[in-house]
Write a structure and sequence with these properties.
heterodimer, A: alpha/beta, Rossmann fold, 2 domains, 5-stranded parallel sheet, 4-stranded parallel sheet, 9 strands, B: mainly beta, Alpha-Beta Plaits, SH3 type barrels, 5-stranded antiparallel sheet, 4-stranded antiparallel sheet, 2 helices, 8% helix, globular
């Protein structure tokens, strides 16, 4: 019996639901690496509806579905679909819900995934709705933390754009279930909004302090368009850049939702602290757990 | 002693204890606007022992369902309703906050799917009450609306 039919927002999940998915992910680790072949979704079809570009999310969903013996069909490019003819999202979802057993959707409108779940005949998984939610990213972030350092007694530093990053906002909400201590490292203009500090233990600190004291640095990109001029952006972004010299002698683990631009130097990649590529890989077993949860 | 500034009604609904200045929004919530045929009387800024000043709305000859009346609680949580039949109060009750409202508010988030004219996404808001404040939450994008009267459709 599934715990949830759709996965739209991390807020829809209880702590128990989250722990259930994380535990289930452990069972799929070997299969995600291709060492086991559980064909539990054989004969099922996943419909990928991506109205916006995606590499990791789309491909890891495809990989997860295929590793479980299922098949995947894609919307393809929006320009080549009936969306270009002006078809509504509601009609597209209604139609394609007849073509498969589950829909994964990424759309530029906030609330689009919730709306899709209201008109779809099959389960809907939100793979990002504009500036809204991206719950499978949050679950893979949590899984990475749990796997690499453990969620109990966690001290995590969030670095970069804490004002606009939806990844950070969803992660914060999920981390409050686990009573994590959250250090905030950001430029003044990109501080975490007050309303997101309601439940939890937060403290603002410098990047140096975070490297010394946190278990995990969760680094996000500082976007150029948030700044009035390029000089200001360069100055600010440069001061939040992680280099090998800064973290070589520390035990802090470095995570990043990717893609990175230059907020983590390439010389960090080979250090044992760098776990962001492993984090991206965990997207596969986490999505295997989610797909099997909603379809079985 | 206060002098009653509007006359009694024979059959209809009296909405009392509306916060001062909100009577027009109450009419809007009830769908009573220019061109409506109901006989409506309204008193604004009337003295009130409980509220200091209040508004009162009387609608004659229109049956208003309890569900519709409860929508008033979004802007007038203390409002009381008197159902009048043949000049007598047949029933009196206080509005209660509905769990959700449909087609009453529009989402302030312009990126929300409910603001896409192409989509049949009926605006639906979940209503929450926190420490004397009523908050409407868009079921699609999660946007919280505190200034409810500004977003009445």
């Amino acid at each position: 019996m599934s715990r949830f039919r759709h996965l739209i927002s991390i807020d829809d999940l209880s702590k128990d639901d989250i722990e259930h998915i994380l535990k289930k992910t452990d069972d799929f680790l070997e299969a995600a690496m291709g060492r086991e072949r559980p064909r539990i979704l054989e004969g099922r079809i996943l419909v990928n509806l991506f109205f916006e570009p995606s590499t990791r999310t789309r491909m890891s969903f495809e990989s997860a579905m295929k590793r479980l013996g299922g098949e995947v069909i894609n919307l393809g490019s929006v320009e080549a679909s009936s969306v270009a003819k002006g078809e509504s999202l509601a009609d597209t979802v209604r139609v394609v819900s007849g073509y498969g057993d589950c829909i994964v959707i990424r759309h530029y409108r906030e609330g689009s995934a919730r709306f899709a779940s209201m008109v779809s005949e099959v389960p809907v998984i939100n793979a990002g709705d504009g500036a809204g939610q991206h719950p499978t990213q949050t679950l893979l972030d949590l899984y990475t933390i749990r796997k690499e350092v453990g969620l109990r007694g966690l001290k995590i530093a969030l670095v970069g754009d804490l004002k606009y990053s939806r990844t950070v906002h969803s992660l914060i909400k999920a981390l409050t279930h686990f009573k994590a201590e959250i250090l905030l490292v950001s430029p003044e203009a990109l501080r975490l909004p007050e309303e997101l500090r309601e439940n939890g233990r937060f403290a603002e600190c410098s990047l140096d302090y975070a490297v010394e004291n946190a278990d995990v640095l969760y680094v996000t990109r500082i976007q150029k368009e948030r700044f009035p001029d390029e000089d200001e952006y360069r100055k600010v972004a440069g001061s939040y850049r992680i280099t090998a010299r800064m973290v070589r002698d520390s035990d802090v683990l470095i995570m990043h939702p990717l893609p990175r631009v230059d907020e983590i130097a390439y010389d960090v990649d080979s250090l044992p602290n760098a776990i962001y590529f492993r984090q991206a890989f965990y997207g596969v077993p986490v999505r295997m757990a989610i797909l099997s949860e909603v379809m079985l | 002693m206060n002098v009653l500034t509007i006359s009694k009604i024979r059959d209809g609904t009296v909405i009392d204890h509306i916060p001062s200045g909100k009577a027009l929004e109450v009419l809007k919530i009830l769908g009573i606007k220019r061109g409506s045929r109901e006989r409506v009387s309204m008193a604004m800024n009337v003295e009130s022992q409980k509220m200091g000043r209040k508004d009162i709305v009387k609608v004659e000859g229109k049956f208003i369902s309890e569900e519709e009346l409860n929508r008033i609680s979004l802007i007038a949580p203390e409002a009381t309703i008197n159902i009048i039949e043949n000049f007598e109060i047949k029933r009196k009750f206080r509005v209660s906050i509905p769990e959700s409202v449909e087609k009453l508010l529009r989402c302030p988030n312009m990126s929300c799917i409910s603001n896409d004219n192409k989509e049949p996404a009926t605006p639906i808001f979940r209503i929450e009450k926190t420490d004397n404040q009523v908050v409407a939450v868009c079921v699609y994008c999660g946007k919280k609306v505190y200034e409810i009267e500004e977003y009445l459709v």
